[in-house]
């Protein structure tokens, strides 16, 4: 019997991408809501409680409301909103971070999919803290470039419209008040004692992102090099199916290399890069903000919860 799936918010960017990743699968049955009842609480509640798995691709308040509709104890919820990523009773949907994360996802009734920026950030910072390369009180700074698809339907329409403002041709820094919505999970998941500084930039291309974290090795006692950190990441993600630690480039090759942010657009994997030398190290995580940073991560969690190959429908 096919597993019944309901996507609450199936017309949004993430919901549509999840549907794309289900194409060709005969092990699931997609339950769709009628267009005229998309905002009907009673119909949404009926579908939620008739499903085996429910994806929440909604604004935060609507996601919290949807969880309140769940009356069937057998319904398992995967939330792609910001609402529950650090909430009690929810498991964090990033299985590669640790064996504990993977085992929790397998049996969970409530999984919160990481944010796109937070996925890149935590793919770097969680191992750094877990392996004691940096202490929990380290003053972490991150910057990131992202395509405009993560900015929502209104912003997408502006970027792709005929009247696009001149400034939209340039990378635009935002969240300058240091209150970005991903910051709570960027601090809580790796166990940082202090909120990291974060400088995101939205750019004039559709999807893909790079999250970068610089480290001055003198702040770590001067005994850690780029090569040491690269070896740590290689060991940490050994065997990961959707995360690849890229080879450490020779110094001369690094000088002429450009790291593009849109290379993994449309894909569901992540790449970790380590650049620099004995004094300064730059660690970068490249992913698609709509793939491993959203819908791909949600489907990966579903596959793990179903007890099947986690890459089903993803590669």
Shape: globular
How many structural domains can be distinguished in the coordinates? 2
Helix content: 25-40%
Intertermini distance: 24 Å
- Low-pLDDT windows of residues: none
- If helices are DSSP runs of H or I spanning 4 or more residues, what is the number of helices? 10
Number of strands: 13
Strand order of the largest sheet: 8-9-7-10-13-12-11
Q: What CATH architecture of the largest domain do you see?
A: 2-Layer Sandwich
CATH homologous superfamily heading of the largest domain:
Dihydrodipicolinate Reductase, domain 2
CATH class of the largest domain: Alpha Beta
Structural class, by secondary structure, is alpha/beta
Q: Residue-averaged pLDDT, rounded? A: 95
CATH topology of the largest domain: Dihydrodipicolinate Reductase, domain 2
What is the structure about, briefly put?
The chain is 31% helix and 21% strand.
Please describe what this structure looks like.
- By secondary structure, the chain is of the alpha/beta class.
- The protein has two domains: 3-113 and 293-306, NAD(P)-binding Rossmann-like Domain (Rossmann fold), CATH 3.40.50; 116-289, Dihydrodipicolinate Reductase, domain 2, CATH 3.30.360.10.
- The protein is 31% helix and 21% strand.
- The strands form two sheets. The protein has a seven-stranded mixed β-sheet with strand order 8-9-7-10-13-12-11. A six-stranded parallel β-sheet has the order 2-1-3-4-6-5, sandwiched between helices.
- Helix 1 (13-21) crosses helix 10 (291-306) and helix 4 (99-107) crosses helix 10.
- The protein is globular, with a radius of gyration of 20 Å.
- The mean pLDDT is 95.
């Amino acid at each position: 019997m096919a597993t019944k799936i309901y996507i609450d918010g199936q017309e949004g960017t993430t919901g549509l991408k999840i549907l794309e990743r289900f194409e060709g699968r005969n092990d699931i049955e997609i339950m769709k809501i009628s267009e005229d009842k998309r905002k009907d609480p009673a119909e949404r509640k009926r579908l939620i409680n008739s499903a085996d798995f429910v994806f929440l691709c909604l604004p935060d308040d609507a996601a919290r409301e949807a969880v309140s509709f769940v009356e069937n104890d057998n319904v398992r919820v995967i939330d792609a909103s910001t609402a529950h990523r650090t909430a009690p009773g929810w498991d964090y949907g990033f299985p590669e971070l640790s064996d504990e994360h993977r085992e929790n996802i397998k049996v969970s009734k409530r999984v919160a999919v990481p944010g796109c920026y937070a996925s890149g950030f935590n793919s770097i910072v969680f191992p750094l803290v877990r392996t004691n390369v940096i202490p929990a009180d380290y003053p972490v700074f991150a910057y990131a470039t992202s395509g405009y698809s993560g900015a929502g339907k209104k912003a997408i329409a502006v970027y792709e419209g005929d009247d696009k403002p001149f400034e939209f041709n340039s990378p635009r820094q935002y969240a300058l008040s240091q209150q970005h919505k991903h910051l709570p999970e960027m601090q809580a998941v790796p166990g940082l004692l202090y909120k990291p500084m974060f400088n995101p930039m939205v750019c004039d291309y559709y999807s893909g992102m790079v999250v970068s974290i610089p480290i001055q090795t003198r702040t770590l006692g001067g005994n850690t090099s780029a090569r040491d950190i690269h070896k740590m990441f290689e060991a940490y993600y050994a065997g990961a199916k959707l995360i690849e630690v890229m080879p450490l480039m020779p110094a001369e090759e690094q000088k002429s290399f450009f790291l593009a942010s849109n290379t993994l657009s449309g894909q569901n994997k992540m790449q970790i890069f380590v650049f620099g030398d004995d004094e300064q190290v730059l660690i970068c995580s490249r992913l698609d903000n709509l793939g491993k940073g959203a819908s791909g991560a949600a489907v990966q969690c579903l596959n793990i919860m179903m007890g099947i190959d986690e890459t089903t429908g993803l590669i």
